[in-house]
């Protein structure tokens, strides 16, 4: 499955030059030992399970919360996946990066990241939650047919946010890699960090603004300018994505899910879910098996 994705011609995809996937079913398989050259830069973030690869002739064993950047043209061997492997996958062409990086320093960050062979990075929980959240936002924008043809700017913004966060993470591992963010970028990244940790129990814009010592109006203005979405919309989309993922597990009851996501009762959660998805949680879950 992973090898297939790495061989895809990105120019043939609906969003030319960009592929975002959330892989949830990777059966145990010996992938083989033939090396191949990576066609486009890819970034993998492991959610659960493990993946064994040889990258630049170096053996890497990736576990939950490990991140690796696979640079274009590098030799790769996928050795083995395990039954519990779930991962976030993003691949993009050089042309897409050049066209969609809205600042020179981000373009420089892209060239830096794609040219490094640092190996895997083991993210702390906070960084993992933030990066996985951005993956989910990008996946939603990239896969939603209803908005895909009018969401070019959202794709650009979410891609830049992804590079912002990668640049920040790599800055902790590379001493001579200096970072510079504008005030708006800093505030947005701080908001996403706090959101990734607290979105289940805190649903108000006022809470996030208070933690960041700004007014709700100012936070919303800055986040919307940077991402193209209001704070409330990002929060709602995050809750819906989390709910959809949980509904795939039939062991999780609607009552438990409503409580886990911070709703005071299942009926309030069901009303919220139906408003945004067009189906009740039960109907949505039943549709997954059809």
UniProtKB/TrEMBL annotation:
Q: Does the keyword Transcription apply?
A: yes
- GO terms of molecular function: DNA-binding transcription factor activity; sequence-specific DNA binding
Gene3D superfamilies according to UniProt: Homeodomain-like (1.10.10.60)
Say which domain of life the source belongs to.
Answer: Bacteria
**Cited Pfam families:** HTH_18
Q: Where are the transmembrane segments?
A: none
Limits of the HTH araC/xylS-type domain = 189-287
Q: Which keywords belong to this entry?
A: DNA-binding, Transcription, Transcription regulation
Q: Is Transit peptide a UniProt keyword of this protein?
A: no
Q: Which InterPro entries match?
A: Homeodomain-like_sf, HTH_AraC
The protein, known as: AraC-type DNA-binding protein
Provenance organism: Flavobacterium frigoris
């Amino acid at each position: 499955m992973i090898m297939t994705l790495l061989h895809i011609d990105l120019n043939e995809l609906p969003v030319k030059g960009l592929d975002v996937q959330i892989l949830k079913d990777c059966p145990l398989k010996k992938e083989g030992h033939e090396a191949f050259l990576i066609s486009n830069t890819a970034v993998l973030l492991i959610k659960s399970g493990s993946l064994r690869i040889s990258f630049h002739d170096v053996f890497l064993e990736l576990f939950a919360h490990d991140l690796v950047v696979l640079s274009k043209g590098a030799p790769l061997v996928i050795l083995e996946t395990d039954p519990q492997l779930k991962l976030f996958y993003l691949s993009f062409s050089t042309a897409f990066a050049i066209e969609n990086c809205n600042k020179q320093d981000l373009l420089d960050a892209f060239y830096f990241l794609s040219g490094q062979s640092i190996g895997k990075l083991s993210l702390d929980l906070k960084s993992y939650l933030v990066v996985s959240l951005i993956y989910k936002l990008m996946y939603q924008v990239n896969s939603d047919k209803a908005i895909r043809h009018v969401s070019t700017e959202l794709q650009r913004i979410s891609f830049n946010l992804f590079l912002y966060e990668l640049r920040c993470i790599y800055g902790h591992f590379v001493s001579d890699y200096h970072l510079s963010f504008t005030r708006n970028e800093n505030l947005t990244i701080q908001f996403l960090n706090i959101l990734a940790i607290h979105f289940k129990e805190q649903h108000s814009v006022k809470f996030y603004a208070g933690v960041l010592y700004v007014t709700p109006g100012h936070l919303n203005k800055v986040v919307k300018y940077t991402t193209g979405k209001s704070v409330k919309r990002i929060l709602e989309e995050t809750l819906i994505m989390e709910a959809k993922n949980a509904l795939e597990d039939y062991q999780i009851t609607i009552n438990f899910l409503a409580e886990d996501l911070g709703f005071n009762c299942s009926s309030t959660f069901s009303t919220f879910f139906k408003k945004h998805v067009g189906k009740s949680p039960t109907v949505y879950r039943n549709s997954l098996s059809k």
